[in-house]
Amino acid sequence: MGKKILKNMDWGILICIVILLIVGLVGLFSATQGSNYEEFKKQIMWLAISIPIMIILTFVDYNTISKISPILYIIIIIALIAVLFTESINGATSWFNVGAVSIQPAEFAKVIVIIALATYISRIQENGKDQISRPTRLLLALIIVAVPVLLIIKQPDYGTALTFIVATIFILFASGIKKRYIFIGILLVAILLPTLYFFVLPEHAKTRIDVFLNPDLDPRGAGYNVIQSKLAIGAGEFWGMGLFKGNQTQLGFLYPKTTDFIFAVIGEEMGFVVAATVIITYVVLITRAIFIAKTAKDNLGSYIAIGIAGILLFHMTENIGMTMGLLPITGVPLPFVSYGGSSLLTNLMMIGLLLNISGRRQKAIFVD
C-alpha cells in the first residue's frame, strides 16, 4: 500500500512546500540577525518536529483519522475553552505556554474541524447527495463550525475565525448545497457586515478597518505598520536590496517582521522576483489541492482537500494583501513562511492529508 501511495502521490505539492519553506527560512534568517537568530532556530526545531508528523499523516488512512474525529473535536473544544483562562499576550488569550514553547490551539482546530465537518457531511450523504440541503442537517453542520469560531472570536482572533468560515464555504459548495442557501448566505453577510462594524466589533478592530481604508488617518499609530510594509516592498524593486540590507527590516521599522509582515521582508530584501515566485507557488499549491479534491476516491477525501484549499487560499490572500495595504490587518500568518511553531505544524499536517488523499486515488484518473 505504501508503494501505491508514493506512486500516486501528488509530488508537485511537495515541491511547492520545499520552495516556500526555503524562502521562509532565508527570510527569517535575515530578519532575526539582531536577536541571535532565536526565532530562526525555533522554526528549525518546529520543522524537525513537523516533518515526521506530516509523513505519518501521509500514510495513515484518512478514513481511520475520520473515525476518531468526534473525539478530537471534543478535545480541541475543551482546549479552546481552557485557553481563554490563560494569561493575555498582546491583548489575546490564544496560547498555552509550556516552558519556552507557545502552543496555539486555534491552529490545530483548523485541521480537526475540517475533518469533523467533512466526516459529518460525507456520512449523511450516504443516504443521498441532497441530505446536506435539509435545514436541520445543514444547521448541525454550521453548529460544528460555529462553536470553535465563537470561542476563537472570544480570544479574540478574528483572522483565524474567518479562516474557518472560508473553509466551511468551500466544503459546503463542494458538497452540492442548494443554490438558494448560497444566495441566503450572501444576503445575510451583506446585512450583517455593517451591523458587526457598528455594534459588535471592538474599537481596535474598527480602527484597523478605518486605517485600511485610509492608512494616513493614523500614520504614527494604527497605520504605521502597513505604511512601513508598503515602503519595504516598494524599496525592494526587482532584485531586492539584498539579505541583511533592507532598511525597514534591519532598522526596526517593520514590525512584526517575522510573522505578520514576513512577506514585506521578502519583498524588500529579495525583490519582486522572489516575491512573485512565492505568490505563483501558492497559486500552484492551491490549484493542486483543488485538483486533489476533484479526483479524490470518496466524498470524505474531497471535502477535506477542498477545506484545506480554502484555508491556504484565505491565508495567502489575506497575509499578502494586508502587507500591500490591499486588505485590513488581521494577524493571519503566511503558511510555511511566517514564524510560528503551531502554524507550521498545522500547515504540514494539512499537507500530509493532501498527500494522503492524492496517494489513494485510483490510477485511472490520470488517463483521459
Features:
15 helices, two-stranded antiparallel ribbon, 368 residues, 2 strands, disordered C terminus, mainly alpha
Secondary structure: elements and pairs:
Blueprint: H1 2-8, H2 11-31, H3 38-59, H4 62-67, H5 69-82, E1 96-98, E2 101-103, H6 105-124, H7 135-154, H8 158-174, H9 179-200, H10 203-213, H11 224-236, H12 247-250, H13 262-295, H14 299-323, H15 341-359
Helix pairs in contact: 1-15, 2-13, 3-15, 5-6, 5-7, 6-7, 6-8, 6-14, 6-15, 7-8, 8-14, 11-13, 13-14, 14-15
Characterization of this structure:
Helices cover 69% and strands 2% of the residues. It has 368 residues and is mainly α. The chain has one domain. α5 (69-82) packs parallel to α7 (135-154) and α6 packs antiparallel against α14 (299-323). The chain is globular. Residues 363-368 have low confidence and may be disordered.
